[in-house]
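the two lines:
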Amino acid sequence: MKQAELISIGDELLIGQVVNTNAAWMAERLNLIGIPVVQATTIGDDAATIKKTIQESFERADIVLITGGLGPTKDDITKKTLAEFYQSGWKHDIEVENHVRAMFEKRGYTLSDVNLAQADLPEKCTVLMNKMGTAPGMWFEENEKILVSMPGIPYEMKYLMEVEVIPRIQSKFGNQIIVHRTVLTQGVGESVIAAQIEDWENALPRYMKLAYLPSPGCVRLRLSAFGNNQETIKNQVDAQVALLYDMIGDLIFGEGIETLPSVIHQIFKSKNLTLSTAESCTGGLLAQKITALEGASIFFKGAAIVYSNEMKVKLIGVNSETIEKFGAVSQETVQEMLTGALKTFESDYAIATSGFAGPVGGNELNPVGTIYIGIANDQKTIIKKLQLGNNRERNIEIASLSALQLLRKFIQQPNN
Amino acid sequence: MKQAELISIGDELLIGQVVNTNAAWMAERLNLIGIPVVQATTIGDDAATIKKTIQESFERADIVLITGGLGPTKDDITKKTLAEFYQSGWKHDIEVENHVRAMFEKRGYTLSDVNLAQADLPEKCTVLMNKMGTAPGMWFEENEKILVSMPGIPYEMKYLMEVEVIPRIQSKFGNQIIVHRTVLTQGVGESVIAAQIEDWENALPRYMKLAYLPSPGCVRLRLSAFGNNQETIKNQVDAQVALLYDMIGDLIFGEGIETLPSVIHQIFKSKNLTLSTAESCTGGLLAQKITALEGASIFFKGAAIVYSNEMKVKLIGVNSETIEKFGAVSQETVQEMLTGALKTFESDYAIATSGFAGPVGGNELNPVGTIYIGIANDQKTIIKKLQLGNNRERNIEIASLSALQLLRKFIQQPNN
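prediction for all of em together
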């Protein structure tokens, strides 16, 4: 089985100013074509280290994908180092030069020598045109080992992977057979799920592997199986996942690359419904999650981010006496926020949130981490009280995801 | 100089379902106490690989920090592997057991044997109490080399780093001298900045290093200097940064761990001003960025996410004829959104956004990527037209940051 390694180059990664999101994306993309990633290494902009790391990676893997260090600035040395590693001379690629010129012209920027130098490339590489930026990718092939160098900027790397690298790897190595299926859950933690599915997990055949992938407010369960026959493996994975649905179906909101917002999009578009939000403690995160996806304008009417009590009253008609009597963080206020959102936005459904996100605030009755989330249509209301910790970011994230999960259940399982 | 390496363990990282944010955070934290990180490696949940990687890391570094693989589930094997690596027996830590019991009781979860097993630990380690979760950290020390194992869940790791690991490393190794200063810019790309500061960069002394750290809508410039005398180095870094301000001060919005939202918080709180937003294409991201930080309620009155034309009219009083005549994506509509937000929210300042975020939509006059951002108070309005690409996520992010930068300049440099 062909295996890959990833090397991320950049002092910025080792001083911790940039999070390496490339490695995860590339790993997932390679796995989907049956190429497992055995190791991912991050190193600095240092020629000797780069060469040594490449050598070590080739001892474990046949494909090494490198990102970073191709920018026009002085600290970027990857291209020069690769030319040394492959003992290669240089060529000037006129197609790259024309592309760089065109990009600068379009944006109205002044072209400098460092930008034009992007067209100087090691003779031994196949140039991969980067339509998203000025630094091209480089494909080296020697002794049946492949090395690809790409820019570290995520959308440039993704473009090169999709258009150039993945197709070339597939045509060279054909497909290995790995079947993954990932089930997405929201509502309880990793160990609660583990306890519920323990017997099933213990009984899994040896060629299957279950991974728990927790993030705030969401646990993903990925079942992977390896084998020789695509159809057989797929059927067996499907059969196991069906058992999983029997056990914890209530927690499952989707699969694979779905997200709670994408599931909500699908439900509202397919049922021709409309939605609005009235947000206090989530501060716009619900609206942002919904509108981050294309096509939100079809069903999302809008949001009132009513951070102050004054605006809860003025913008969506919460009764000021309700706030006075029960507090802004209360079932009663959330009820009126829901009614107000349905009326103001003339939407079929509304979500409302109010709580103490922390890290300070709260009161005796409702300490930090107390968050009310509610869903309503013109027939029915559900309000749920969450008791979370005192991590603000986490609380806002969990409250938003919990509200979307509550909305999904409200529509898909109206009798629960 | 003592050096560190990071090892992240988890199949979930190699199949790409979880982005490794821990490595960046830990690297930054170690750098701040003068411990450079020389390499960061991600490997799977495999005992032999874990042992081999630790051995190799110890060849380059004196401190190895490991995250991941400490969960209660079957695929987590780090603890067992470390016991083997150090040829250690086992002990049961009653303090950890009591803590696990208390956490479960507080949350109303049922305690299972796998949870209690978190209190079984290698005899040779110093147990680091993890008040944020059930898996404790482990500190091993042998032959002047330190290995620390922590959970992969970011807020648990961060707690252990701040409370246990960093103080212990500092007291053991004292401080190395590295001075960093990071200047944050918004408005133009990496190569435009590079061209503007080229002569200065070329003239930097050898013991200083400049790194460009681009992310969508923001380029950070980190100047690092190494030496023996804290004060001398700091003075020299400060002098160089002062020159940087002379050259590109207009682009700089802050330094270090500041962000545009944190700078806006500071300005509005110190000047006792209030703010609201009326968002179309940014869909709540501006409100979310502002309210993600504690204390937003002091100055942030709220937001109207007016995704539909209907809501632009109804919620904040945009004239429907304006939308009809000029379109929702126009200077004229944004002008009325600003006026409407100031009036509706009774705020001193308002931000408004309207544009085609993409990836599809737009028209001949205003193609995808055309976004109007505006700022107003009761005296003055500034509206700026951005022409971005067709990457929706990127466009929304850049538009939001550009709007916050415009707001900052509007207040801090009112005559520009």
